[in-house]
Amino acid sequence: MxxxxxxxxxxxxxxxxRELAVFSLYRLFLSAILFSAFYFKLPPEFLGQIDPxxxxxxxxxxxxxxxxxxxVTLKKLGRFESSxxxxxxxxxxxxxxxxxxxxxxxxxxxxxxxVVVVAGGTLIPGRLSAFIAAIATLSVLxxxxxxxVVGDGTTKYSHAGMLGATFFATALLSQILSQKMMAxxxxxxxxxxxxxxxxxxNEHIIxxxxxxxxxxxxxxxxxxxxxxxxxxxxxxxxxxxxxxxxFSIPLVEQLSRWKHERVPRFDPFRPREDxxxxxxxxxxxxxxxxxxxxxxxxxxxxxxxxLKLASLGRLTASIAHEIRNPLGAISHAGELxxxxxxxxxxxxxxxxxxxxxxxxxxxxxxxxxxxxRKAIEPKVVILAxxxxxxxxxxxxxxxxxKTDLALNVSTSLAKVSxxxxxxxxxxxxxxxxxxxxxxxxxxLQRVEVKLxxxxxxxxxxxxxxGEGVSESMKENLFEPFNSNRQDGTGLGLYLAxxxxxxxxxxxxxxxxxxxxxxxxxxxVERQENLQ
Length: 531
Known about the structure:
- By secondary structure, this protein is α+β, with helices and mostly antiparallel strands.
- It has helices spanning 13-39, 52-75, 80-102, 111-123, 127-150, 158-207, 227-233, 249-261, 298-340, 344-371, 383-398, 420-437, 471-474, 492-502, 524-530, and strands at residues 212-216, 221-225, 242-243, 278-284, 290-296, 379-382, 405-409, 415-418, 447-454, 457-464, 506-511, 516-523.
């Protein structure tokens, strides 16, 4: 009996109930066949030939019991081992009675008990499976003994003995095979669980990556995307199966060139005017889809800006004296010339000398200020209060009516982490430009500062009612020495953008039908990192 005491790790309860349900369906099918064949007088004719009335009652009761067991199994009533043991024992009893009323073991119906024994070896672990084999063997022996007593007394036990040996061998083999199948099933379930956990982990990692990831099918539709990609493309909520062309024409063009020309590297592009520049990289998948990586170039721009300022500092330090000394001499000579000659032409020429000397000196001062800029000291700034004080200061120094410069706050508790002095410099430059290019005669508000939040961003818009930046100027708007103002150095917007990038913000230009705005965007996540 130790052969049946195999070291077993039980399968999961759900799997066992599922296997018992399958056997219950077999029982229902078998009982229905046994009852129907007898009731409709179908072959084989020996069914119920010894005692038809008793066979009819037993086969009907077996069918009703099978239906009952189906319900019990599907609802998982009671303990599994007890339920399985009771069901299998009743199977042995019903089949033995059917054999007895149909003519005995010579009819071949004894093989039906083998299926019950196999089910016992599969469903019931350890020695309990041998119990089902023993019950089946005992029932066969009892049936043979009963037949010998009520019959002619010539019944032999050899058939019953061989059948009983078959029961025990079948129980042993079925249990060994069952345990191997259960072990394989447990391994498969564990691997499926590991794969699921790995998929969840990968999804979490991809969704929290700073790099945007898009999967685009051969028709140019995005089938998968992470949060960073949607943010970089300006999508406000999660979308799938949308055309990439509707959100980024430059990205579609780069994807097309990559597919047809296999260009290894592309220039950064801006998906929208108010979004930062992104750098796209492409990889082909085995499915024919394209995997696109989108990187925000802001951090790279910050590093490049630091290197640029370091080089600019060394350059300006070496040439400052070489330029400013002769420039001072030219300016002083112009002043002396103006004092000694009062004619109109001389005054006009000396005025030109003075103005352009002052402009060159202003350019040198601005470049020196940029190269000597102090390290960033970010502090938490509550923007609504800060902007209110700043606008009051600006109006007072520029002698502007407060009604001409409006502040519109949609989120009074918005705060960012930024160097307050550098924020002051950026906003002063933007307000000064907005006031310069606004139109007093226009009935719209001359200058308006808007503070609001959107998704994970805090935004400041500085808008004016002027004509806006021309199309020819937009392309190089933030480049140094690019200005339409006669007395401008062309370094104000360039410096403002550099200061924003150094503080983790982004400066862009937004134009509409009725107003034109410079937008400062503070990503909340990046601001938290700066803190």
